[in-house]
Amino acid sequence: MLRIAVPNKGSLSGPAAEMLHEAGYQQRRESKELRIVDPGNDVEFFYLRPRDIALYVASGQLDIGITGRDLLIDSGADAEEILPLGFARSTFRYATRPGTIGELADLKGKTIATSYEGIVAKHLADHGIDASVVHLDGAVETAIQLGVAQVIADVVETGTSLRNAGLEVVGEPIMKSEAVVIRRTGADGEDPKVQQFLRRLQGVLVARTYVMMDYDCRVEQLEKAVALTPGLESPTVSPLHNEGWVAVRAMVPSKEAQRIMDDLYDIGARAILTTAIHACRL
Ligand SMILES: Nc1ncnc2c1ncn2[C@@H]1O[C@H](COP(=O)(O)OP(=O)(O)OP(=O)(O)O)[C@@H](O)[C@H]1O
Ligand SMILES: O=P(O)(O)OC[C@H]1O[C@H](OP(=O)(O)OP(=O)(O)O)[C@H](O)[C@@H]1O
Ligand SMILES: [Mg+2]
């Protein structure tokens, strides 16, 4: 039975459970459940603190886990990313009061508050900057106002928390993060159970980012039309009853669907439809 770690709280937990549900796995019914078995899929889910997941996976007790890339790197655990999942996207950045720090080198001698000591210590060491790091559990933005630090290093998504605290970012992002599937470093990459799990999640990712597009066009316009909708491998082209016309079917990225429909219309395609993809295996 495949043993999988899933975040039990925080920004990762809702979207992770939703993705697993879309991939056909049973999920817990209430947030106090710490472990469930899905016998139909031969999988056992353990609901753990996101920050602990890399450690459990590195220990070899659990086969794979879902966590944040930033949490994985911060943990220093012997685990590696095998599939990015596209949710809980964020950057990790230094921030301070406007006008206090111009560039990275100005961090020298400062005290930096963060919940991600591992990432910050490594970044400072890589840049040869000698600064102190103070660990806080959360609400790090308030540390400057309360005099615990002159600088913070924290997760930034919309920037609202920084603005509300009257802070501005310093330098470029230290890293970009999103939810990722991880496994123990060097674990068997061919394990069929793991491969099947990854294919299911990849199917959800594709279903979320592509739509199916159908349209009719004149045979003379087919090459131009196919250039607009090349599909993932190649579009399906079927004859229509009306001579000189064909029906075309191809997957297109959802974000580009409206532009592609305009372009197809301009070259004479008609009856252009898009439909959602609910699941797929590529
Ligand atoms: N506002 C946010 N937007 C996107 N991702 C976020 C946000 N806040 C945290 N994350 C991501 O969530 C993961 C941290 O999850 P964790 O549960 O430890 O913290 P949290 O979501 O801040 O929850 P809490 O602080 O309430 O426990 C990291 O990968 C981080 O990048
Ligand atoms: O750029 P934003 O969109 O404002 O998002 C970033 C904020 O979200 C998270 O905080 P959370 O609400 O989880 O509280 P915490 O700081 O206690 O973890 C993170 O730690 C930042 O503070
Ligand atoms: Mg938080």
From TrEMBL:
Its EC number is 2.4.2.17. Keywords: Amino-acid biosynthesis, ATP-binding, Cytoplasm, Glycosyltransferase, Histidine biosynthesis, Magnesium, Metal-binding, Nucleotide-binding, Transferase. It comes from the Bacteria. It catalyses: 1-(5-phospho-beta-D-ribosyl)-ATP + diphosphate = 5-phospho-alpha-D-ribose 1-diphosphate + ATP. InterPro entries: ATP-PRT_HisG_long, ATP_PRibTrfase_cat, ATP_PRibTrfase_HisG, HisG_C, N-reg_PII-like_a/b, N-reg_PII/ATP_PRibTrfase_C. Residues 207-278 form the Histidine biosynthesis HisG C-terminal domain. SUPFAM superfamilies: GlnB-like (SSF54913), Periplasmic binding protein-like II (SSF53850). Pathway: Amino-acid biosynthesis; L-histidine biosynthesis; L-histidine from 5-phospho-alpha-D-ribose 1-diphosphate: step 1/9. Its main location: cytoplasm. The keyword Metal-binding applies. Feedback inhibited by histidine. Transmembrane segments: none annotated. It is found in: Cytoplasm. Residues 49-203 form the ATP phosphoribosyltransferase catalytic domain. Belongs to the ATP phosphoribosyltransferase family. Long subfamily. Catalyzes the condensation of ATP and 5-phosphoribose 1-diphosphate to form N'-(5'-phosphoribosyl)-ATP (PR-ATP). Has a crucial role in the pathway because the rate of histidine biosynthesis seems to be controlled primarily by regulation of HisG enzymatic activity. This is ATP phosphoribosyltransferase. The lineage of its organism: Bacteria, Bacillati, Actinomycetota, Actinomycetes, Kitasatosporales. The gene is hisG.
